[in-house]
TrEMBL record:
Signal peptide (from-to): none
Protein name: 23S rRNA (Guanosine2251-2'-O)-methyltransferase
RNA 2-O ribose methyltransferase substrate binding domain: residues covered: 43-116
PANTHER family attached to this UniProt entry: 23S RRNA (GUANOSINE-2'-O-)-METHYLTRANSFERASE RLMB (PTHR46429:SF1)
Organism annotation: Pseudochelatococcus contaminans
Pfam families registered for this protein in UniProt: SpoU_methylase (PF00588), SpoU_sub_bind (PF08032)
First-tier enzyme category under EC: transferase
Amino acid sequence: MNDKPSRPRPAGTHRAGPHWRRGMASNRRGPDRTGEHEEDGVILYGWHAVHEALANPARRFKSLLVTENAARRLTEVFHNLPIMPTIVRPSEIDRLVSADSVHQGMLLYAESLPTLTVEDLAPESLILVLDQLTDPHNVGAIVRTACAFGVDAIVTTARHSPAATGVLAKSASGGLEHVPFVIVRNLAGALQTLSERGYLCVGLDSEGEQALADVPLRRPLALVLGAEGKGLRQLTRERCNVLARLDVPGKIKSLNVSNAAAVCLYDVTSRLSAKG
């Protein structure tokens, strides 16, 4: 584990030189191609995911594999990288990630970020609660959107949820470094605790009794999203204060869950901001 990294400073003169390690990645333990997950950490690849992680003082790093082109790109941004990179051929990174992964010449092995508890959440938070969303592309897209709209945390379960690594991290486009996770064993119990702490828990449901636009909103607020197809589980529905639907004018009335999250967050954050 490396020492605590410092914040990067913009730079345009420092270039990758002979002090950067060169080598093959063939002896490095790589991710499982199906899950892209290390037993004791995570992998991050692609410019946004790796750049944001390297700029995050809370991250702890294990190794960084980069191509020569990626090394030059990184040194245009960072005066001093928080970890010494190893220069490899693109094919070496290809071998360590899924066949369709767009890694842009960089692969970072890091420790997982610390998670929060429900009790750690600030009193006026806006949070998302994910009920057994298992597609890492969807969850990653939701993380990216949550970051864009200033969501304070994402609550999800320890089981039936994708790990914050690989495909999810790439889809999140760096959002993992800015939106903390609250991992719970029992989602219904967590929603009960949130309600007791003053949260308005709004479940998004296509058959909700109210349109989301008509629900009076306040902070702290939890938006609860269910898996595509299955939607919210029954006990999750029962723990929500309100079940709201997202009304759309077109012929297709349902949206991909990550798109629905974006539309809902735009509406919610606009209304909360207007209230001051």
